[in-house]
Structure formats: structure tokens, C-alpha cells
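Section handout 9: paired folding examples.
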Amino acid sequence: MAGTKTHDFHILPPDVVPLATTIGALTFTSGMVLFMHDMAGGKFVPWLGLAILLAAMFQWFAKIVREAHAGDHTPVVQLHQRYGMILFIASEVMFFVGWFWAFFDFSLFPSTIAEAVGGQWPPKAIEHVINAFDLPLLNTLILLCSGTTVTWAHHSLIHGDRDGLKKGLWATILLGMLFTSIQAYEYAVAPFAFGANTYGSAFYMATGFHGFHVIVGTIFLIVCLKRAYNGDFTPRQHFGFEAAAWYWHFVDVVWLFLFVAVYVWGNWGAAVH
């Protein structure tokens, strides 16, 4: 019979949202070029692009939630969603590999040409570094605890405990906000600036991008908490939450590598602040 569905895939109807997302991304990145070169529109175009991008993403994600409610997420669709999230996290891993590569290149082969570096690591211009066993260690413990609480939430969801799901999400979100607050304070009192030499550039880019991912992950979990209060997620179908949990564990693991490589090994033997 014509029009009868004979497969497990979800065929999407034509939609303007992907086009709007593309336009928003292009406008935002082009606007950032204008901003960095102090050109006309540099203070307006990036915000316009970001607004379009966020609005399009909100609409796109809302459609995915409605599809789940409508029963369009068959086992085959859910499997492909998992493949997509795995590939996304893999791309994020390679993103951070780039920053680790830069840090190790700077530290193992310090420049003898740049006067600020002076052929040593940390560079000669760095008088003090951040004590790895002060705020960074505290933040490490906070993120490890948050990994435990998000697992608690996931375990509760699988076993039908809605109250445990909400409590676990609340605890994880609060721990994520605490981590971000401590990171912001650490930056405020750091004894070196961004961009003055290779150490400052590598440190702030690696830890700063991780901090951005923590903020994104926290927003991800806040959305999951709102959906939990709305009655979404079942023990058998909860990929939205599962993706958020995967992302949060990824953020945890990246921080462990940052703590060991950047804060401990990278600062070894230097005077601490």
C-alpha cells in the first residue's frame, strides 16, 4: 500500500532549521573575523550570528524531543544517535589532542630565540606558576564527585527512581557551577597573563576551552533536569540524558589529563604563587 512505512528509519520532512543553523554559524564566524580585525560590524555581526545559531539549535533540539514523544525514535534510530554522539566525542578528543600537542611541543622544546622563553620551561618570563595542589586539586575532586553524582542519576533512571534522578542531576549541576566559579577565581588571581608567552597561551587555551566545555555540559544537564521534571525519560528510552552523561564523563577525563600534564608535570620545579 502506498505510503505505508516498511522500515525502522525516521525520514525527516523538509525543514528550514538546518539552513538557519548554517546561516547562523556562517554569520557568527564571519562576524568574529570582523571583530578580530576591528572592521565595521565587528561588534554587532557576531552577536547576530550567535542569536540565530542559538535560536535554530533550540528549535532543532525541541523537534528531536517531539519526535521522541511521537515514537519516531525506533531502536535503529537510537543506535544511530549513539553512533553520532560517539563520533562527536571522538572529534572533541582530537580537539583537545591539538592543545595537548601544543603544550608538550612548547614544554619539551622551549624556544631559545624568544627572549621571554629563554630556552627553559616554564619560560624565563614566568616568575610564579599556579600551585597544582591548591585550587586545581580541589577542582579535580569536585569533578570526580560530579562524575559520581551523574552516574547516580543514570542508575536511578534505569531503575525507575525519578526522585534519585532529580537529586543526582541537581548535585551534578551544582558541582559543575562550583567548578566554573573556582576556575574563574583562579584566572582572576593567576600570576601570569594570556598571550605574553607560550606558557600563558598554552595554559589558558587548554584550560579555558575545557572550562567552556564544562559550561556547555552544565547547560546540557540543566535541560535534562527540566525534562525530568516534565516527565520525560523512561528506563528504556532516555538517550538525551545518556548523551549528557557521556559528555560529562568526557569532560571529567579531559580534566584529569589537564591536571596531570599542565598543572603538575608542566609546573614541576617552578616557584608557585
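Moving on to protein 2 of 2.
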Amino acid sequence: MEGKIVKIISSDFTVSSENFLYTCKARGKFRNQNITPIVGDNVIFENNVIKEVLKRKNYLRRPPVANIDQVIVVVSLCEPALDLYLLDKMLCIIEYNNITPIICFTKKDLLKDDVTNIYNYYKKIGYQVFYNNEITKIKQLFKDKVTVLSGQSGAGKSTLLNLLDDSLDLKTNEISKALGRGKHTTRHVSLYSLSEGLIADTPGFSALDFYDMKPSDIRDNMVEFNEYRDSCAYKDCMHIKEPKCEIKNQIGKGILKSRYENYLKFIERN
């Protein structure tokens, strides 16, 4: 039989197939082949044993999910404070993995500052952007899609899921103000049925990194750079120290200053 892994707890794999759930074990051969089945994998199973993991179209290492159509990056505007570095890093990595990124800003009601310019900028460069009170619009994104819901601890992922489907009743916690971070209220990656699609609620992803990405991959996945890069004097311009660089010329004009500054940090730490 063919199915999809929707939950993993310890060595138990919950596989969904034809509207039924099966608790399966993985064959020992996967360890010898250096294959680790993850949530989202399409598999062949028999007698509650996973025999084969089918080819993945993509996957993320953290959160560990395969065959993803889109990632909704949940971004807190306060408590914890807005972190554009983490947002830009996530967007770059999602783009590199050929997955559609979507941005959802939360806790606008707790914010005193105006963030309209931030919201509008990310829309302008091609991203779908929402506030978490736009529930009807967000629900329409899920049909026939595998969606990952990701964001820093305390950003409001579980709260957003509960707004989308109150039957989930996922646990939420108050922000730990002493640490400036949320507690990890989601302990396992799981896929839930939602609005005729599947959605993953995932643990915090503070260990997310560029892994195998080269500096040129980082450059190429800063999406707004592509509009101006042909005007740079050098074809392979990295937009750092090169003269006559149009990307640097556009800082504060067509390119948000924080985006460029974060790009430099990505390159430096890569």
C-alpha cells in the first residue's frame, strides 16, 4: 500500500492511506542505506512495516518535513520582538529549496509602532503577506497543499492553528519574558488535515541554517536583487565590495536597508 507519513513519535510512524491511519515501523535496511523517513514522506508499506520511501520533491532539515508545497513563516511583531534577520534567513532558505514562502505577521494588536512599510515591502517584492486576523484568506491557501507552519518560539504558530481550526485545541503558553522566547509548546512534527489540505505544526527552528548553500546561492535567493543585478558592472557581482554595483545603489530606494544588511550577515556567517 502507498501512504504518507503524518506523524512520528520515537520509532512509531503514523501513515495515512485512503482515509485510514496505520501505526508502522521502519525496516532496518533504512539505517544501512542512511535513509531517515520523515513527516511528509510518501511510502510503500505492508503489514504495518514501511518497505520503501518514495523519491522526495523537496525537504527541509529543520523542521524535518518532506514534499512541501508552501511554508507559512509566522513572524511575531512583538513579544518576541520582530526579527527581520530570522525572517529573511528563512525566506532565502525556502526559496533555495523551491518551496513557496508565505509570511504571516502576528500580534499586531500588541504593537504600538506602525509596520505598514515592512508589510508593504515584502508584498512588493513578490511574497504573499497576511496578518493573522485574515483567517478567511489564510484558509484558502491550504486546499490540496502540504503546508509547513514555521516560526520562532512564541511567534504564535499554535494560536494561529487554533484560529484556523479550533478542534485542534493545540497547547499555547505565555511568553517567558525573562528569556524573551516562547516555550516549545509543540514537541513533535505532525501533519493535520485542514481546509482540504495538510498542514504541519512544527517545533521551533532556531537551529535553521544554510547547510549546503554557497554564497552565490544566498545571493540568487534574495529575490529583489534579481530585478537590478543585470545593471551591475560585473556579471558575477556579489554586491559586497565590487564597484558600480546596482544593488548597493538601490539600498534605501528599491531595496530595504535591513534586507541588504542581513544579506551581508548571511554571507559573513556562511
